[in-house]
Amino acid sequence: MSPGGAVVIRLYKVCKEFTAGRTAVSDVTLNIERGEFALLSGPSGAGKTTLLRILFGQEAASSGKAVVNGRNIHRMSGAHLAALRRELGLVFQDARLIERIPVIENIALAAEVCGIARSDARRRASELLELVGLEHAAGELPGSLSSGERQRVSLARAIANDPVLLLADEPTGSLDRATALEILHLLELVNEAGTTVVVASHDAGVTSLLGCRTMRMNEGRVVEEVRPEYAAALAAG
Amino acid sequence: MSWGTLAGQPISYYFRRAFDSIFATPVIAGVTITSIAVSVLLAGSVLLVGSNAYRLVASWGAEGVDLSMYLRAGVDDGRVVELKEQLAADPAVVNVYFISNDEAWMFLAQNLGDSAELLDGLDASILPASLEVTLARTLDADEIEAKLAEWHAWPEVDDLQYNREWTLRFRSALGIVRWVAWALGALALVASIIIVGATFQLAVFSRQEEMEIMRLVGASGMPYWGPVMLAGLIQGIVGSAAAVGLLFLIYRGTAGPLVGQLPMLKGTLAYLAGSQYMTLIIWGAVLGAAGSWLGMRRFGAWK
Ligand SMILES: Nc1ncnc2c1ncn2[C@@H]1O[C@H](COP(=O)(O)OP(=O)(O)OP(=O)(O)O)[C@@H](O)[C@H]1O
Ligand SMILES: [Mg+2]
C-alpha cells in the first residue's frame, strides 16, 4: 500500500492552545504513511485547519512532537521551513492565486521557486494545466476563472514540484457538488501518482464518497478513525 | 538571456519579478516614484541652493583679509626689507608688498584727480610708508587678532588697519550658510523618510497577499525578498533621476532671470556637480530599497 512503508506524518501528543483554556488541537497522535489518502473530518471549529497549519509550519504546536517528511517541525523557521514547503503541496479553500499574473505563471512560479529553470517551469505548468483541463486558460488572469477553475489551478500549482505530501484545507468548500467531485477526483489522481494526500473537510456529504481513511475530529481531538477498507465499503453503499 | 545566478535564481528572475510587480500596480508604483522624487527634489534643492549660497559668500571673501601695516617715520630701507621678509615667511601671510611715502603720495594724487592741486606745498613724507599684507583665508577671527597683536608690538609699527567688521561678518555669514544648509538637509532627510516610509507601507500592503503565497510555495531568502528590494531600488532610481531632471529645469528657469536681477551672481551660480548628481541618485536608490525593506518588516513579511 505504501512504497517503503515510510511514515510521512508522525504526530505525537500534539496540542495547540491559542489562548489559555481555548484549545484548538488537543493531544493528537497519529501516523500517516507514504502514499496514503487521508481525510480529516469533523464539525466546524474541530481543529482541522489548525492541525494542517501545524503540519506546514504556519502554526507552532504548543506541545507534542510533529515530524513531517523526516523533519521535526517544532519551532522551525526561515530557510528550513521554506525547504519543507518546497516538498509539500498546499491547497486552500480560497485558491490563493496571485491575481496580477496569468494562470500559467502562477503555476510556473512555484516550480521556479524550487530552482527549476524558467523554460522548464513553464513547460511543466502547461502540462499541469492540461492535466486539470485548463490548457485554454493558460494566459488568462485568475480573476476571470470560476471558483472551480481557480481551485484546479491551485491544485496544479500544488503538484508542480511533485510533492511528497499534499495538504488540502477545504478544497471543495466553495464549490457546487459536481465541481467538488471533480476536484476530489483530481486529488485521487494525484494520490495514485504516489503523493500522500491529506484533506481536511467538514463537508461529509462529498468526502464520504472518497472511501478513504478518515479521522473524525471534535473539539481538538481525533475522536474516531475509520480505516480505508471500511470507508470504501461504506462509500460503495 | 540570463547573466548569472543569485541564490539559485537567474538574475533575470529578479528583474522580471521586480518589473512585474511595478507594472502590476501602476498607481502605487506612481505614488512611490513620486514620493521618492519629492524627497530627492527636496534634498537636491537644499544641495543646490546651499552650495550656491556657500560659493557666493565664499567668493565675497575670496581676496582674503587685507591689512595695512603703517611704519613709523625714519625706519630705514634695510629694516623694511627685513620686516617684509619676516612677514613673507609667516604661514598666515599670503602676500606682502611695500608702499613707500612717495608711492603713497602718488596714489593719493591719482585718486584726487583734478583736485590734486590741494596737495601743493605738502611734503610726501607726511604720508606714512606701509607694508600691505594679505592674510590667508583659513584664519579665524581669533587667529587674526593674535597676529595683529604680535605685529602691533613691533617697534617699527605705528599702526595696523584692516576692515575687521567686514571680515568677521563674512566669516559668520559663511558659518550661517553652512548651518542653515545642514539644518534644511536634516529636515529634508526626516521628511523623506516619513513620506517614503508611508508610501512603501502602502506598496507592501498591496503585495501582502502575494508575499504570503510566495512563502507558502516555499520561497525564502533572496529569491523571496530580492525582487521586492529590487523593485524599490528601480523606483528609487527612476524617482531620483526624474527629480534631478526637474531640478535642472527649475535651475535653468530661475538662474538666468536671477543673474539679470543681480549681476553680482554672474560666474558664481552653477548647477550641481557630477558627484552631487550621483549622490542624489544613490540617495533615491537607497530610499527605495530601504523603504521596501522597512515596508516588509512592518508587515512581518521579512523572514
Ligand atoms: N489564530 C487563532 N487564534 C485564536 N483561535 C483560533 C485561531 N485559529 C483557530 N482558532 C480556534 O481554534 C479552534 C479550531 O479552529 P480550526 O480553524 O482549526 O477549526 P476547523 O476544524 O478548521 O473548522 P472549519 O471546519 O470551520 O474550518 C476554533 O475554536 C477557532 O476559534
Ligand atoms: Mg478549517
What can you tell me about this protein's structure?
The complex is a heterodimer of chains A (about 240) and B (about 300). Chain A is an alpha/beta fold and about 240 residues long. Chain A has one domain (about 35-50, about 75-235): P-loop containing nucleotide triphosphate hydrolases (Rossmann fold, 3-Layer(aba) Sandwich), CATH 3.40.50.300. Chain A has helices spanning about 50-55, 80-85, 105-115, 120-130, 145-160, 175-190, 205, 230-235, and strands at about 5-20, 20-35, 35-40, 65-70, 70, 90, 165-170, 195-200, 215-220, 220-225. In chain A, the strands form 2 sheets. A 6-stranded mixed beta sheet of chain A has the order 6-7-8-3-9-10, sandwiched between helices. A 4-stranded antiparallel beta sheet of chain A has the order 2-1-4-5, covered by helices on one side. In chain A, strand 7 (about 165-170), helix 6 (about 175-190) and strand 8 form a beta-alpha-beta unit. In chain A, helix 3 (about 105-115) packs across helix 4 (about 120-130) and helix 3 runs parallel beside helix 5 (about 145-160). The longest helix of chain A has 16 residues, at about 175-190. The mean pLDDT of chain A is about 90. Chain B starts with a strand and ends in a 5-residue tail after the last helix. Chain B folds into 2 domains: about 5-60 and about 170-300, no CATH class; about 65-135, Alpha-Beta Plaits, CATH 3.30.70. Chain B is elongated and about 105 Å long. Chain B is an alpha+beta fold. Chain B contains 8 helices and 6 strands; from the N terminus they run ββααβαβαβαβααα. Classes of the chains: A alpha/beta (about 240), B alpha+beta (about 300). Magnesium ion (MG) binds next to helix 1 of chain A.
